[in-house]
Amino acid sequence: MAKPMNMLVIMSDEHNKYVAGHAGHPVVTTPALDGMAASGTRFTAAYTPSPICVPARAAFATGQPVHRNACWDNAIAYRGQMKSWHHALRERGHHVASIGKLHFRGHEGDDDGFTDTILPMHITNGTGDVTMLIRDPDDIREGAARKLLKEAGPGESSYTLYDRQVAAQAQVWLRTKGKQQHEKPWVLFVSMVAPHFPLTAPPEHYYRYYERDLPRPKLATAEERPKHPYVQTFAKRSDHYRHFKSPDDLQRCLAGYFGLVSFMDENVGKILAALKEAGLSENTRVVYTSDHGDNLGTRGLWGKATMYEESAGIPMIMTGPDVPHASCGTPVTLCDLSATILDAVGAGDAAREMGLPGVSLLDLAGKPTQDRAALSEFHTYGPDGMAMIRTPRWKYVRYIGAPPQLFDMEQDPEELSDRGEDPAYADVRATMEARLRDLLDLDDADRRAKADQAAMIAHYGGEAAIRARERMAYTPPPTAR
């Protein structure tokens, strides 16, 4: 059993796991995250429970996958209806605080389970993006695509200003409440928005990359892009590259994203420095992660919503006095991080009582790779649901109404060769399908998701009323309202 200690969890939003110094990126520097990776354990096969904000964060809160918590999309958010790790810790007398983005429903009277909730960012107006309830493959979100390109460049956005406030409040909390005497270890959850678009990066970070030769996204041309039906549907709905008119358009978007990663890393560094200066480093474990990734132009796609590594893969690094310097290849998700938080502060019994499927990262760090499967699922955008499992070697993606995908992650980590319909891999697909069914009945989850979405459509006045609404590009932070 791990020694109970304080726990600091830092989460970013939409951080492509390859865009970091410790991940081998040829241009981007992330000294704070690299320092964590150099002193702790980096989980190289970490995944989001769902490659979109609201479901991913609901799964992290509850420690339960999407098909269990039923927060299917960006309009059906967590509202405290299922017990969270924060509820469990508060019940047991731990001080558990949140600073920053939560993306819960956020209605008055909703109990999020935290002792302190500081600068919370919830779904817009308590409703979120209800246009996502309509799963029409011909519903083109052109406005969001235009906005991505228009806002890419140097400067400050409402998101960078918000993140500065979140980082400042985290430093204050650590130097005040964090230093106070507590009967039990505390947990601080700090949640920032960068590098989520808009791709407006502070100038000192933007120009670090804009004036350099930047690596171009792989498989970005129309000829190179995968012909899989879902990938084509998502590309049509997002249609970002349609608005790129010159090489400089791509340069601005990449420099904006890379600059936001460096900006986020700067804020992480400030928080870690405050932890050390407050004298808390020797009794606190720290985890850095993100809710999901970003395709970042690969395969002609921007944003998330795919099961490729750039979108479904996430960074995950853990440090602490007893955390070994190691690289762990065992597949994990944010649901495992939920179980880890409870274990790390001495409340592992709560994970068992709640029936959490996750395992503690403290039990995996420094150990040989284990044969387990990480699960991710997606129930919006496309007309039908999809789910992915990742084992140490294989990634299998099942789509309702479309062919499966299969990738050998040992031989093909870039996911260039899809074996989803290759007869030579039929046995592997059958094995992976069986493992998926052990975790999830996708057909049942798809039916339940569509039923819940239909009920919400009716609640908001019907499909015609929802189609008349503006399609949201991103949620405004509380400081921008």
Automatic annotation (TrEMBL):
Molecular function terms, GO-annotated: arylsulfatase activity; glucuronate-2-sulfatase activity
Coiled coil: none
Annotated ranges, domain Sulfatase N-terminal: 6-346
InterPro entries for this protein: Alkaline_phosphatase_core_sf (IPR017850), GAG-degrading_sulfatase (IPR051849), Sulfatase_N (IPR000917)
Family annotation (Gene3D superfamilies): Alkaline Phosphatase, subunit A (3.40.720.10)
Official protein name in the record: Sulfatase
